[in-house]
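Checklist before submission:
- one chain only
- standard amino acids only
- sequence pasted in full

Submission:
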Amino acid sequence: MELKAFQVENFRSIDQSEWINIDDVTALIGTNESGKTNLLCALWKLNPVSDDGKINLLSDAPRKLYSQLRASDKSTIFIRCKFELNENEAQHISKLRKTPSEGLKFTTVCRKYNGGYTVDFPYEQASNLSSSIFQNLITSKIKIISKLQLLKSENEEKRDKYLTTFEAIDSEFQSPIVDKARLEKCISLLEDLFDEKAPKTSELTKVYNDTYEFISSHLSNVEKPTSEELQKSRDYIIEQLPNFVYYSNYGNLDSEIYLPHVIENLERTDLGAKESAKVKTLKVLFDYVKLEPKDILDLGRTDSEADIDLSSDEIELKAAEKKERSVLLQSASTELTSKFRDWWKQGEYRFRFEADGNHFRIWVSDDKRPEDIELEGRSTGLQWFLSFYLTFLVESKDAHKNSILLLDEPGLSLHPLAQKDLSLFFGNLSKTNQILYTTHSPFLVDSNHLNQVKAVYIQDDGTTNISSNLRANEGNPSQTKSIYPVHAALGLSVSEMLFNNCNPVLVEGPSDQIYLSAIKTLLISFGELTPKKDIIFIPSGGTRGVKPIVSLLTGKNDELPTVLLDGDTQGSKMAEALRKDLYQDTPNSILIVSEIIGMDQAEIEDLIPPSIMKKLSRYQLRSNDPDSDFEDYYAKDLPILKQLEEFAVTNEIMLEKGWKVEFAKLVKNHLLKISRDKISEDTINIWKTLFSKLN
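Returned file contents:
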């Protein structure tokens, strides 16, 4: 199961949040006290991996609802989550619920304050059959009965009996929907006709057998599940829920670890939060070393008087055990040094573990400071990252595998460049674990994937809200402050391009950035694009924002950035103005989508295969009219975005502010999951042509 979206309500500072779509990595940004932690905690308590995530009405319920909830049965829901099932899970649920698996790919799971769950399948298709297939069959059989040649042993009375029965069956199928009760009645009518002595060569017998077999074969398709089977389907979903792991304190490792205390604390259950976090990190460390603290304690102690009475064989055995433990420490030191370099880019660090009496020490050296220094003598950032790294490297292979990781303010003590390394660490970790984290730092906001960023802000009534639309509620000062890290991240991205040899491409809006980033990723994965410089797409906020940002993006050598514009009226006018003014010496740096595709008025959306856009439009544009489908409305060789908007107006579908960005995210997620053979060579050639001009 994969988490796709969540909504929090009636939890701490949150009345009711928006539904928030989730990516492999999702960042929640916002000011202090905006409610970021509350959102993570509500999600954590859907299915916490540890007991400290239990629901606590006193701390979790909003103050204004506490007395009401305390006196009730506590059946109020506080978290709703949408999950996508894999094929095996959907098939299993399909067998239990006796409905097609196509409608069971998504499930909504909610949790109540009393600990109970609700499970729903919002797209489940009722197992009803259209009556038309039965009407066509019965009509044809009535015609056959009327004209067939009777055997000598049969008479017209028998024919009339068949006609009367089949006409009665035909009347049952006049209703547009066929259910189990209707089919069972038809089978009962047929069984009244059954004659054991009827000749097998009879045409009437053949009509009877064909009809009986056809109706019986469809009976299983409308069979209703029992209440026990429905409950089993809900129980199965709860069993398959991913665990949610919440971290707000990673328990930084000390350089000198007093082993007797560690051994004692590992057995205790009454430790405070800070000590528990530290013990947890130590346990991970010893798991990594593959030795128990008692073994390390024994390794570090010198020979005692008790060893005097040992035989030579016992002394030799004890020495061999110590040597093996020493080798394990050396091996763990070497392995940590090697693997740590793949993640931490702020220096070439070497680690050495040492057992010394009652103490276990971690020594660190690097090329600039080759002498061993205790871990505590190095930076707080290095201590934090090592503790964080060990926790996730070791635990993600065990208890955290396939879990969803909720990280509260990770990397606060890290240098900005180290925070960028942490962002890379998240990207790799997300291959096995979805990650949601809160942050204030622009260095932990990926400006290339702003669709992964959600803004948390305080509303006018003092409650918390969250939005995928970073420009939502712009009139609210707290919202403006919340998205400051995004503005800063975009500024940093610009600086990186200027100083790190990147290739900036200015586009009109964030949806354009999302589509083009997806195409770039696909071309690179297909081996069709190997850019010498990374191509980064910068949204300008519309054609009006192009000129101001062009000046910001102009490099130290006064080289103007490439601009890619839609082929609509506004885009074409802006392209003409830029070519006459700023770009009069480099007009080829202004690109228009319609010129690339060869379609008048074409926009960025027209770079995407229409089949994909049409398919996904069903999720974005849901009409109240079941007979109205955008696929029937779509006209080839015309810009698809305008057609989508016209279809919405015609069918009275409300398009919310920012819908284009949300739709772009949906398309991008779909594109990145499909193989090359699902995309035509003509489309790939258009993409290659575009990126050859951008590169």
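Reviewer check: The domain at 1-127+224-243+401-482 is CATH 3.40.50.300 (Rossmann fold).
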